[in-house]
From TrEMBL:
<keyword id="KW-1133">Transmembrane helix</keyword>
<keyword id="KW-0812">Transmembrane</keyword>
<feature type="domain" description="Ig-like">
    <location>
        <begin position="32"/>
        <end position="129"/>
    </location>
</feature>
<dbReference type="GO" id="GO:0009897">
    <property type="term" value="C:external side of plasma membrane"/>
</dbReference>
<dbReference type="GO" id="GO:0050863">
    <property type="term" value="P:regulation of T cell activation"/>
</dbReference>
<dbReference type="GO" id="GO:0005102">
    <property type="term" value="F:signaling receptor binding"/>
</dbReference>
<dbReference type="InterPro" id="IPR050504">
    <property type="entry name" value="IgSF_BTN/MOG"/>
</dbReference>
<dbReference type="GO" id="GO:0001817">
    <property type="term" value="P:regulation of cytokine production"/>
</dbReference>
<dbReference type="Pfam" id="PF07686">
    <property type="entry name" value="V-set"/>
</dbReference>
<keyword id="KW-0393">Immunoglobulin domain</keyword>
<dbReference type="InterPro" id="IPR007110">
    <property type="entry name" value="Ig-like_dom"/>
</dbReference>
<feature type="signal peptide">
    <location>
        <begin position="1"/>
        <end position="17"/>
    </location>
</feature>
<keyword id="KW-0325">Glycoprotein</keyword>
<keyword id="KW-0472">Membrane</keyword>
<dbReference type="GO" id="GO:0050852">
    <property type="term" value="P:T cell receptor signaling pathway"/>
</dbReference>
<feature type="transmembrane region" description="Helical">
    <location>
        <begin position="239"/>
        <end position="259"/>
    </location>
</feature>
<protein>
    <recommendedName>
        <fullName>Ig-like domain-containing protein</fullName>
    </recommendedName>
</protein>
Length: 290
């Protein structure tokens, strides 16, 4: 019975010659560019009975509507205010294409195009995705005596595939930190990817793929670092240590000799005191010097 009603309905719609359609596949909105959501219906040069509504599938928010031969912006969801437009002159040709600019992460989802004429109502849905091309990755290099750290930073959307590859295309690291600093309001992830190499020279390639937008970035990095600074540093350290040890030794020797001299002069005065009994200093007493 149900399928009979359905058949009857489709027969009726086909008979009335009223049809609404959207292009196949999903639409990808790109940050910084307007997005076009196509929707076509059987053309009718008389616009007065036309009621056209674009809505979000998930919650029926009104994205844009047109009836009484004009845009009805007061019923539009505030989320879409000042961002949408129809090509009004195209409506006569059965073209209900909607333009949205600027686009953001919040625009991701389903869009329903509903067109009503006296002949009937037709609906069609289109899915919108969102992406942002990753910016040119910024490279920072930091080295110490034991390793070299490479860091790339970039912004884009959605999560990319990243990797660090060696000379034979072997995977060295897939480290990735994705931070959504502004909780989706900017529609961008902040990406950080590290690679730490224990060797003082390296030849690696950083690769980033944003599959949604078919974006691929290859950034080769080649560093030859002899570690001269480390060697100089080591030499300086060794010299300092030797100098310190020698200084300490010298001070010890001086202290020892000073102590010895003091002791000797005490002995001398003792001799002198004793000597006073026989009236003269013993000539065999050696003189004390450093
Ligand atoms: C939309 O544009 C009007 C006029 O340009 C402006 O007064 C209004 O604040 C804007 N609304 C939003 C939500 O940006
Ligand atoms: C509908 O109108 C838009 C804007 O002029 C145009 O880009 C698009 O190609 C039209 N669609 C068709 C199917 O003609
Ligand atoms: C050198 O840098 C690496 C990576 O930042 C760190 O893990 C390591 O502790 C550092 N070594 C020295 C001697 O500072
Ligand atoms: C790095 O590797 C690439 C190929 O893997 C090679 O063409 C290039 O000459 C290498 N560069 C250095 C400095 O070794």
């Amino acid at each position: 019975m149900e399928s009979f009603v359905f058949l009857l309905l489709s027969f009726f719609t086909t008979c009335a010659g009223f049809d609404v359609s959207v292009p196949k596949g999903r639409v990808v909105a790109i940050r910084g560019q307007p997005v076009i959501l196509g929707c076509e219906f059987t053309p009718n040069p008389d616009l007065s009975p036309l009621v056209l509504t674009w809505q979000r599938v998930e919650d029926s928010r009104v994205v844009h509507s047109f009836y009484y031969q004009k845009d009805q912006l007061e019923y539009q969801s505030p989320d879409y205010r000042n961002r949408t437009s129809l090509f009004v002159s195209e409506l006569r040709n059965g073209n209900a294409t909607l333009r949205i600019e600027p686009v953001g992460l919040g625009d991701v989802g389903g869009y329903l195009c509903t067109v009503s004429y006296n002949e009937g109502t037709g609906k069609a849905q289109v899915r919108l995705d969102y992406g942002a091309f990753y910016t040119e990755p910024r490279l920072s290099i930091s080295m110490n005596c034991s390793s070299i750290t490479l860091l790339y930073e970039a912004e884009g959307y959605p999560e990319p595939e990243v990797g660090w590859f060696g000379e034979h295309d072997e995977v060295l690291s897939n480290h990735i930190d994705l931070i959504d600093k502004a909780k989706g309001t900017t529609g961008l992830y902040y990406l950080k990817s590290y690679f730490v190499s224990p060797s003082p020279s390296l030849n690696v390639t950083f690769r980033l793929k944003n599959h949604l937008l078919n974006q691929v970035l290859h950034r080769p990095v080649s560093i030859t670092y002899g570690g001269e600074n480390c060697r100089t540093l080591n030499a300086v350290t060794t010299a300092l240590i030797v100098f310190c040890v020698l200084s300490v030794l010298l001070i010890l020797i001086i202290l020892f000799l000073l102590a010895k001299r003091q002791k000797d002069s005490r002995d001398l005065s003792y001799t002198l005191t004793n000597g006073s009994t026989n009236g003269r200093l013993s000539p065999s007493r050696p003189t004390v010097g450093l």
